[in-house]
Amino acid sequence: MDESRIRTHINPLIGKRIARHLTIADVEAMQDDVAKGKTGKPRTGERGGKATGGRGVAARCLTTIQAILGHAKHKGLLAEHPTKGAKKLAGNKRTRRLSVAEIETLGKAMVYAEQQGVSPTGIAVIRLLLLTGYRREEGQAMQREWVNPMGGFVAFPDTKTGEQVRAIGPEAIKVIVAQPQIVGNPYVFAATTGDGPFTAVSACLQRVCGYAGIKGVTPHVLRHTFASIAAELGFSELTIRAMLGHASQNVTQDYIHVDEALKLAVRRTSDEITKLLAQGAAKLDRLRLVADSDEG
Predict the structure, then answer these.
(1) What is the Cα–Cα distance from 174 to 274, expressed in whole angstroms?
(2) Where is this region: Disordered (predicted)?
(3) Where are the alpha helices (DSSP H) in the chain?
(4) What is the CATH T-level fold of the domain 100-295, as seen in this structure?
(5) What's the N-to-C CA distance of the chain in angstroms?
(6) Cβ proximity of 35 and 55 under 8 Å
(7) Residues spanned by CATH 1.10.443.10 within the chain?
(8) What pLDDT, on the 0 to 100 scale, is given for residue 121?
(9) pLDDT in tens, 60-102
(10) Which of 27, 35, 209, 280 is disulfide-compatible with 107, CB 3.0–4.6 A?
(11) Global confidence as pTM
């Protein structure tokens, strides 16, 4: 999706600009133009998609260009992030989250999907996002050197809201540690070819949810689900905002060293979701046992 966004919306508007000369005004103007539909395109051919623009697409375009520039700064290609602080348009608020029953069903479907040949790396990213509440980009582009298993945190050099240190529970650490290391590839979830990260998590999630019969699920829904389970466990809104890495109320600064109370909240939430996923997977095992006994 990022590649399509760059090709369809970003490149036509600012693709010829020199990165270090970009300003906040430039990328906000790009965002406004996408929102107004200036980069919209009609459907082409039988399989061609229709690009309409809109506020949601515009906001995601800004997120994409900010991530690209942030990565360039991290790699030393830019001395400073030239557009840090650009204001993203508010889109339609997404409140979809998985119910307890749906989490169990997803756990069952994840096991089944891997048996059907769905990428185990993609399934691992799905599990990590659900166990951490991390954003899709944070999970699938996570690098090994950012992760401190003993300290129970991930030090992100650049996120949607800047540099952050975020708590992570033992169950999520297990997912990370289980991933094979590819020589020359710094990412936890490595692409099958090249030295980049795995990027097909959304497609994998759709396949898994197809097996589960669950509709309307995106990586962002997994983030909402993590927050919802944390709320059900009794954690305050302030704590949940810190768990999710929201910085709009300066919450992150209060936990810059990731205090033990926040680690406990993340661990309990992650453990609860792990339990629900396992309960779903166990149901698939029981179904298998019944089927085997019927055949016998």
Answers:
(1) 11
(2) 33-53
(3) 2-5, 11-14, 24-35, 55-74, 100-115, 120-132, 136-140, 170-177, 201-212, 219-232, 237-244, 251-254, 260-295
(4) hpI Integrase; Chain A (1.10.443)
(5) 47
(6) yes
(7) 100-295
(8) 97
(9) 888 888 888 888 888 899 898 888 888 888 765 557 899 999 9
(10) 280
(11) 0.66
